Amino acid sequence: MLLRIAIFSAGKTLTDPLLVILTLAAILLFFAARRTSGNPRRLIVISILLTIALWLLSTPLVSGLLTRSLFITPDATDVAPDVIVVASGGVVLGANPEFDTPSYASNARIIAGVQWWRQYPHARLVLAGADTWPGGRSTRSLEVMRDRAIEHGVPPSAIELETWSTSTREHPLGLLKLRGITPNTRVGVVSSAWHMRRAVNEFRRHFRTVIVHPVPARRIDRVLYINSILPDETSLGATTSALHEWIGSAWYALSR
Q1: What is the pTM of this model?
Q2: Helix (H) or strand (E) holding 236
Q3: Which of 85, 145, 175, 206 sits 20 to 30 Å CA-CA off 131?
Q4: How many CB atoms lie within 10 A of CB 153?
Q5: CA-to-CA distance for 15 and 201, rounded, in angstroms?
Q6: What are the pLDDT digits (tens) for 172-194?
């Protein structure tokens, strides 16, 4: 388990555009400064191009395009789900458990899941996915999401926690371990719009009927304005998440 966590963390770190681009630029500038012969101009030009690339990846324009590239169209179907699965998106830990809050992704997913569940109150509402931390597995994110669902009016008896899975690939396998769940169960999947493509691909490998229900995405303004080409930390974070999602999808496809 610890090796798996270490590999996962290293993979995310080594594909972070901020780290990769700045490291490459620093190395190139270092060798350019140490050159006593030849023309270091080429190394300096490459460093400048890398800096421009980082600038672009940090803009709302590019981050919006990358995020939208992950979106899929929800199914146009009126099929009622037997189970509504809400994928965990993590938890923000406080000084003590009373201050723990769901991450933005977890909060948005549970609200969307509850709203959908109200249309089909006879469906089972399953919160899926344990966290893997250096100290071991944790179900804290699921517990916080359950509390939020109860705050929004879902009776505790209608909520189930699927604590076996720790990744998107394992979510459908963990669901199949629950009582009464079979490949013929009609499964509704709730996740962030940028994560839905990878999630639904995994569920469709194990269930015959999968209903896509992405969390409504934040509106991305298509009109160009000065701030859309200015870098900011939030946009770089969105770009990094989108790149990691595409890398994750490619890895799932290749490792299959």
Answers
A1: 0.81
A2: helix 233-255
A3: 206
A4: 9
A5: 23
A6: 999 999 999 999 999 999 999 99
